Amino acid sequence: GDVYKRQMVDRKADGSDSLEGFVVCHSIAGGTGSGMGSRILEELNDKYPKKLIQTYSVFPNQGETSDVVVQPYNSILTLKRLTLNADCVVVLDNTALNRIAVDRLHRENPTVAEINSLVSTVMAASTTTLRYPGYMNNDLIGLIASLIPTPRCHFLMTGYTPLSIGTQVSQVRKTSVLDVMRRLLQTKNIMVSCPTRKGCYISILNIIQGEVDPTQVHKSLQRIRERKLANFIPWGPASIQVALSRQSPYVKTVHRVSGLMMANHTSIATLAQRNLKEFDKLWKRNAFLDNYKKEDMFQDSLDEFEASRNVVQELVDEYHASESSDYISWGLQSQ
Predict the structure, then answer these.
(1) Which residue, 78, 168, 169, 233, has most beta carbons within 10 Å?
(2) Distance, CA of 257 to CA of 174 (rounded, Å)
(3) What is the mean pLDDT of residues 238-254?
(4) How far is CA 269 from the centre of its chain?
(5) Count of CB atoms within 10 A of residue 287's CB?
(6) 8-state DSSP, 102
C-alpha cells in the first residue's frame, strides 16, 4: 500500500510541467486524517524537501462530544507533524464553522454537506489568484511568503464575507470594498474560534473578488489604518496586503464584491492550547493507550507523545513571544 501511494505521488510529480508544491486536505482528530495525513506529510517532506507543502487542516468541534475517544492524542501527534513538516497550515475549525452556520446563516442543525460548502468556499477563494492569474500572487510561494515571516508561525486563520450556504445568504446590505474589508476583520466572520481582539496580527492578505477599482482599495486601507481596526505586531510592518481577483465565470454570485482574509494571528495559539489541555486530561490517567501500544511505532515506548506535546508547547510559546517587541532576540536565544 505504501509503495503504491509513493508511486502514485511520484508519477503525478514527474508528470507536472513545473511542480511548485503539494496541497494536503485532512482532519487532525480522526484516525485516517491524522495518521495517514501525518504519514503523507512526512513522506512528502522527506522526498521533496525543496517543494512547498500547504495543508487545509480541519480541527475538531470542541462543542460536541466526539465519537473518537482518542481525539486529543491524534490531534497532538498531528500538530507536531504540521509544525515540523508543513510550510503553511490553513486552519478550518469545526467549532467556528458550526457557529457561523447557526448564528450567521440561521441553520439549526447544520449538516456535514453544509459545513463542507463553507470549507469549499474558502478553498476556492484562497486559490483563485492561482487559477485566474493576475499581476500579483499568481504562484503558491508568492501567496504564502508574505503571510509567514518566521518558519514555525505558519498557522493561518481565514474569514469570508458575504457568506452563503445553498440559497441561504447572510444578511449583508453593503458590499463596497471598505465594507467587505472591515467585515473580514470582525470575529464573527472568522472561521477559527480564537479571540482576535486579544493578541495581534502578524500579517493579513485580503483576496477581493469582483469588479473593484484599485483606488477604492487604497482608500479602504487608509480608513482601516486610521480607525486602528487591526492590531499588528510591534517588531514588523503593519502589513495588510490586497490581491484583486476576478469572480468565477461559472458560478453565479448574488453580491458584486466578496472577500477572503487569510491572516496570521497570534491568538491561533489558543487553539493549540485547547488541544494540549484535552491531551493532558487523558495523559494523566493513561487512558486509551492500549490501542497505540499495538502499533510498531509505540511498542517500545510512548515517548512520541511527550515529544509531540513539547513541540506543540514550543509553538504556543513562540506565538506568545511574537506579541512582544523583543521577539527577534527571543528567537536567537531559543536556538
Answers:
(1) 78
(2) 9
(3) 79
(4) 12
(5) 13
(6) I
Count CA atoms within 13 Å of residue 302 on its CB side: 13
Could you give the dihedral angle defined by the CA atoms of residues 205, 209, 211 and 212, in that order, rounded to the nearest 10 degrees? -10
- Residue 213's pLDDT band (cuts 50, 70, 90): confident
Q: Is the pLDDT of residue 57 over 80?
A: yes
- Check: CB of residue 71 under 8 Å from CB of residue 25: no
pLDDT one-digit tens code per residue, 289-300: 888 888 888 888
| pLDDT beyond 60 at 167 | no
Query: What is the residue whose three cell numbers read 477559527?
Result: 192
Question: If pLDDT is split at 50, 70 and 90, which confidence band does 166 have?
Answer: low
Residues facing 56 on adjacent strands: 25, 90
Cell numbers describing residue 261: 482574509
Q: What are phi and psi of 164, to 5 degrees?
A: -155, 150
